[in-house]
Amino acid sequence: MTQTAIVEVAGLTKVYGSGAAEVTALDAVDLEVPAGQFLSVMGPSGCGKSTLLNLLGGLDTPTAGTVRIDGQTLGDLPDDQLTELRRRRIGFVFQFFNLIPVLDAVENASLPLRLDGARGAEATATGWLERVGLAGRLRNRPDQLSGGEQQRVAIARALSTEPALILADEPTGNLDSKAATEIGELLRQVSSEWGRSVLMVTHDPRLASFAQRLVLMRDGRVVDDVTLDGSREGPRQALERSGLL
Amino acid sequence: MTLVPTLAWRYLRGRGARSLLTTLAVVFGVMLTFGLNGILPAMVDAFTHNLLSAAGKVDLTVTSAYNQPFDPDVVDRLAGVPQIDTVSPGVQRTAPLPHEANDSADRLAQVVVVGVDVTSATSIHDFRLAEGRMLAAGDAATVVLNSDLADELGLRVGDNLVLPAAGGTSRFRVVGLLDEATLPGQEQVYLTLGAAQQLFGFGNRITQIEAVFTEGADRTATEQAVAAALGPDYQVGGLSTESSLLASLGVANFAFSMFGVFALATAGFIILNSFRTVVAERRRDIGMLRAIGMRRRTVTAVFLVESLCQGIIGTALGIVAGWAFAAGMFAVMAPIFESVMHFKVGGPLFTPATWVQSIVLGIGVTVAAAVLPARSAGRVTPMDAMRPQLGEVFERRVGHRAWVGVGVILAALFGLTSGAALLVGGGSVAFLVGIALVAPAVVNPVADWAAGPLELLFSREGAIARSNLQRNPGRSAVTVTAVMLGLASIVAMISMVTSIFAGFISYLDKSLSADYLVIPQSIILGQGNVAAGPRLAAEIRHAPGIAAVSSLRITQGKVDGTAVQVIGIDPDAYLKVAAFDWNTGSSDAAVAQLRSGRWLIANGIYAAQHSLVVGQAVRLETPNGIRTYHLAGIGNDYLNAKLSTLYASQTNLERDFNVTADVLVMANRKPGADPDDTRIRIARIVADYPAFRLYESESWRAEQMATFSQTIVIFDVLVAALALPSLLALVNTLAISVLARTREIGMLRAVGATRRQIRRMVMAESLLLSVIGTALGAISGLWLGYALVTAMGAVGWQMPYSFPWSGLIATVVVGLVFGVLAALGPARSAARLDVVAALHHE
Q: How far apart are CA A28 and CA A9, in angstroms?
């Protein structure tokens, strides 16, 4: 790892419940993500990948361990500062797109900027929407857009504040394969062209193949960490090697 | 627009039908608050306007504080006040027009006879003649009146107008017609002062002085100077603000305000419920907004601004609707007031206070109701953005809140039994809030109890409906509470109205139990009815077939500067033909006590307003000075149930007030006397007194009951207006409940439920919810009604509690019908759900 790390995770542990009902979702995970890297996380359901994402985004608090995003330790921050960090340094892309149904594409994409009180929020958002290929759909509301288009709006929204890190949770879980491929290419472009780190959780090996690096998890632990070469078969082979397929 | 208002406004618009339903609740609440409060000031205004001299440039009117004629030397004392420019003495009294058996019911019953000092009156008033001439100073039997009034009476110049006089009738020749429009209730005929004094048997006494100020005189200072010059026996201005009729209007205002408060409380609850559901539905939106960096307080602000928009729109529409409502009420009430009270009411009148109160309450209640849901929205975590949308997520902690509810109910009981109007109002709202808090804890047991008949009606669907309902008692309680709140306030209001009317009817039956009543043509005593000399009662007493005769005499006195009506009764004869409805601790012995010196009976309103107890001394100001009376008892009679009244013996009335004329004569038939013969004999006697009319008690009672029925229409309109928010609440919560379970309904369809079964299930659920809501509403409404009736007694309107059977049955029927009606739309849309879309519903 030669570049500056955007994500630094050490001994990250998350335990839910107590006594007999205790479940260790994440067990002493260490991870670093350099600037501009596209990292994919895979593993069976319940392996802890979503928990990892939630902890990285400051959406949940760890039982033990530390998370540093862009040099800032999340555990030390009060709610308002954590909220501000999410707004400025992290972009989220959700499985269900999570667009506000009553706002159009530009308004949705400009939300974080407007929350930040930034000038020219709509112009910036429009620029990003054009870059993700939605120049013709700027004033459409979510119910007037296809699933793939809605996810593009969500990606434009995530990029609008120029964050260091994009966290994507099953971003193609609700899309057909053609739209999923397009989103995969777009996310690769986010890291390769626009220099953002992308950490994506997915079940889809084809989507994972767009990433530069693959982390495999099982039972709350990292079981493998491989560099991908762009081949569509890379993730599947890695899963087989780790006995996850 | 900045982000928060943009989001709030877009969400509000995006919710469409549901925004409309919840906003309508605010509209109805504000409509009632604003509309009802617009009615009372208009009535006071009409009343004042009708009593004060309206025409001409009169600045000030002086009348006797005891409503009696007074010596003309007062004119000189008034003229001596420096700021007074012109004075004009006069006589003004209502005189009934001779009544004939074949007259139609809407024929003019009375006129206001105005005796004017021709020289001074023509300098103050502008008498524009259309025909003939004005009165001349020396005229003895001439009259001038408005041309339209003359048309109504069928009179022309040269004809004779017949008016009743103390000793029979007098005829006046019409010499001139005035070119002025007559206001209903202000049908005036003008005589010379001397002629009017002779007509009413006043000698040289007058009843009023009109005055004009000097140029630039200050009104307040002049009124004070006049009051100081004339002393406490004279009233400056016209209507005393302490008038007991105004006090009665104040009580009506309190009841009106309660209607508005109940409607707004229901609206508040609908809004609370609506926002809670909205927060549940928008959890993922909120979670995302939090994830991408929206602060908690910004999330809360979005919801508060949304409610603010709703409050502003609802209040604005409510004010428009309230204006229309008040105008509609006036259209219904005006004819009743004109026929019963003989005064004209104009349109609604909205004071600045009414505007402020309606705006503050409308917007305030809406925003306040949204505070709790908005705060809970602020607590939604960003994690919620990651989860699939849940159908419904609010489940109440039942036990904890129920205990809080019990505490609130206990506090409400204290307020309701305190007797203070403010605490009673607050207590009644708190009581409903308490019941709302307890509701979730009782939904399941009550559902068990009510489900039996339901399952008979709806079989399997009924059982599913019950389990739907019991699975989430929190959600069920919301609907139940909405129904309960609406119906409880209706039952309480019906209880009050029923009790008020039952009280009047009971006074009517008890206090006017005589076989024959000889009464003036307006039922309110002391409003200038011409009195009869003692001869009328004496003649009736000596008629064959008559057993007992008693009369009422009337005057006005003051206690501690406040006017009070004093009625003179004959203690020896009164109880033979009439009765009092005694308050606890008083009995017929009080009437006998009136014989032995200066003793009084007070009616309930007066005793309550002045906290009087039996035996207490009352310093009564009379035309002959202050006299100390003692209170012998507290009781009510029908005619004076609405006015502060004291009863004294006729002997004392003559001694202290110089009053000897009767305004009402009651008589009983001898056992065995022929009813027809007796009636004909009395009718012959009464025929010589055109001011009076003979009634047999049954026909008089029937006439009064007809007036009640007309008045009840007004209350029916009010209750119906109050029922509308309940219907909205039910439709709203049911629609929300169906919407929240779209996925569940889709699943039921997927596993084989037919459309008909889904429809029946939703219908059964709605019916079960409304049965529970109606039962709770009826019980709490009955109790609340009882408490309010008792509380009204404490503020002076003592009335027996009357169980509102018909109102209760009507309410139960309305509750159940609402339950079915409210379910029609949601049941249809649930049955029509596309299964696949429903299963994927977010």
A: 9
Residues of A with CB under 8 A from a CB of B: 50, 54, 57-60, 79-80, 83-84, 86-88, 91-92, 94-96, 98, 100-103, 107, 111-112, 114-116, 157-158, 161, 169
Q: Do A84 and B11 touch (CB under 8 A)?
A: no
Q: Which residues of A touch B288 (CB under 8 A)?
A: 92, 94, 98, 100
Question: Are B833 and B814 found together in one domain?
Answer: yes
- The pLDDT, as a whole number, for residue A8 is 95
In a domain, B421, yes or no: yes
Q: How far apart are the C-alpha atoms of B740 and B757, rounded to whole Å? A: 19
Q: Is B735 within 8 Å of B406 (Cβ atoms)? A: no
- Whether B513 is covered by a domain: the verdict is no
In a domain, B401, yes or no: no
The verdict on B737 and B634 lying in the same domain is no
Q: Final residue of a domain: which of B690, B723, B757?
A: B690
Average confidence score pLDDT of chain A: 91
Q: How many domains does chain A have?
A: 1
Confidence of residue B730 (pLDDT cuts 50, 70, 90): low
On whether both B456 and B555 belong to a single domain, the answer is no
CB pairs under 8 A between A and B: 81
User: What's the pLDDT tens digit per position in B183-237?
Assistant: 555 678 999 999 998 888 888 899 888 888 887 777 677 878 888 888 878 877 6
Residue B837 confidence class, pLDDT cut points 50, 70, 90: low
Q: pLDDT > 90: what percent of chain B? A: 10
Whether B287 and chain A come into contact, CB under 8 Å, resolves to yes
Give tens-digit pLDDT for A64-99: 999 999 999 998 888 888 888 888 899 999 888 888
> Is A218 within a domain?
yes
Q: What is the pLDDT of residue B339?
A: 61
Is A50's pLDDT higher than 80?
A: yes
Which one has a higher pLDDT value, B69 or B693? B69
Q: Give the whole-angstrom CA distance, residue A25 versus residue A59.
A: 15
Average pLDDT value for residue range A48-68 = 91
- B14 and B122 in a single domain? The answer is no
pLDDT-wise least confident of A92-106, B453-467, B533-547: B453-467
The answer, for B383 touching chain A at a CB cutoff of 8 Å, is yes
Same domain flag for B83 and B104: yes
List, as one string, the DSSP characters of B576-624: HH---EEPTT--THHHHHTTSSSEEEE-HHHHHHTT--TT-EEEEEETT
Structure confidence at residue B613 (pLDDT): 85
C-beta atoms of A111 and B298 within 8 A? no
The amino acid sitting at B644 is S
B3 touches chain A (CB under 8 A): yes
| B610 shares a domain with B535 | yes
CB B476 within 8 A of CB B487: no
How many CB atoms lie under 10 A from the CB of residue B461?
Answer: 22
Same-domain status, B106 and B251: no
**Chain B, nearest residue to A102 by Cα:** B10
Compute the distance between CA of residue B591 and CA of residue B573 in angstroms, rounded to an integer.
10
Inspect the interface and report whether the beta carbons of A98 and B6 lie closer than 8 Å. Answer: no
Q: Are residues B345 and B436 in the same domain?
A: no
**Angle between helix B398-416 and B755-794 (nearest 10):** 30
Test the B interface: residue of A52, A79, A96, A139 with most B CBs within 10 Å? A96
Pick among B283, B288, B294, B306 to test the A interface (most A CBs inside 10 A): B288
CA distances from A35 to A4, B86, B714 (A): 6, 100, 77
Tell me what pLDDT residue B694 has: 83
**Residue B247 confidence (pLDDT):** 52
Least CB-CB distance to B292: which of A80, A107, A157? A157
Question: A98 vs B7: CB contact, 8 Å cut-off?
Answer: no
CA-based diameter of chain A, in Å? Answer: 55
* End position of a domain, from candidates B664, B690, B716: B690
* pTM > 0.80: yes or no: no
Residue A17 maps to a domain: no
> Are B294 and A115 inside 8 Å of each other by CB?
yes
- Within a domain: residue A118? yes
What domain range is B441 assigned to? 412-506+701-842
